[in-house]
Amino acid sequence: MTGSKMKELRKKFEKTLSEGEYQDLKCTLTEIPDHSQVKQILEDNFQICSNREFRVVLVEDFGDYKIFIQMPDGKSECDFFVWWARFKDGKLQSFDIPTHKYLGNWYIELKENSEILSEHLMDAVVKLIKNRKSETSIVEEFLSSLDDKLKSEVMKFLSTLKWVALQEDVNYPPPKLGSKFTLAVYVLLDSGLFKINEIVKILKLRG
Fold it and tell me: For the whole prediction, is pTM greater than 0.90?
């Protein structure tokens, strides 16, 4: 997408959020589908393929932090954008597309803020993307000793990462790699051998 088209899309998305003209379908997807089933389940829940009119859908709500998907996008006939948005006193403060670079830096920041996350955050990412576990079950299993504020931040991170992984599975379903590309970012990042900018270039992912 060209810079001018993205600028136009950002304005349209911001207007939709500011005027509250989005669909609220949060909690519709309670389990993470298997890679091969993602497209059909997202179609059943959000009509990502059959309704390609411009739409913004709220899929995760943490109060001051929300995750939206927006149709259409152009990588495939069912593609969509993922957006995060931060609010203060109910008013939109900031928003953007969670790129792999953005999420990678968030991952690093979380690990640096907690010994528990330094040890277990990679396990959480693997459970999310590979084993398709829910964010809540992952936090309960690995991160129950975190304070509430840090738990909330981890939930926001994992939920955002989940939707990026689902987007990859829609665009590149089996036998293509799909969300395995997303997981590869964190495997390489956790090795300590690569910086996030280098990983984005290696995997040829949008930064």
Answer: yes
